[in-house]
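Morning F.,

Quick status update on the modeling queue. The single chain you submitted on Monday has been processed. Sequence for confirmation:
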Amino acid sequence: MRLVLMRHAETALNAANKFQSRLDPPLDERGRRAALAATLELPAQAWGAVYASPMVRSCHTAQIVGQSQRHPTTLTELIERDLGVLDGLDKAGYARLDPEGMNRLLGDANYAPAGGETRTAVRWRLASAIVQIHREHNATSKPVLAVTHGGVLRELLASAPSVSNDLIGTCGAVSVHVALSGGRDLSLRLENIGSTVADCHRTWTSTGTETILPRPEMTLVPGTVADQPKGLLP
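Structure tokens below.
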């Protein structure tokens, strides 16, 4: 299955370089223009299906980039990492006040800020979302679009040791070839990392960066919060 994972367009909190995770601002004007511009190079009826995180910024981006598919399917598993007490804080200011905390936030997969969640939990959720999308659309000939968040995409890149896990910019995307084997693993091949959604839609090759995510042993229902999946930890 061909999957394009896209980061939502810009919000005012993105522009101000603040943590927003579970805060739910709409797209700002520049974000709306960028999402519209992203559709200009896409063919008509580009997507086999369109998914989004339930956050307003992701849903609005998916409604724009999804073209005629104005009602994306929401998957809670695509939601941004919960940063708890950090929401709304200036990122640069926090890094100056608590450099150790910032380093742990980005570097320690099992660290959670107060009231927040770990990177490991985000990686579980991402794997769960991909399994659900694959189950529904493995036979779809067109690529599937899923609009998510920077922290979620960071975990996708972090699962591939040879790839930089720098934050993908707003409206940036990644092409993902998805395969489920008979074993416990979810096999992904990443291409066009950080490219435009149009480049990700049209460029698919037999090369790319291979990575593995644990295959959750669970059935997901769109729009619901999943329990912790069972299986091999990332």
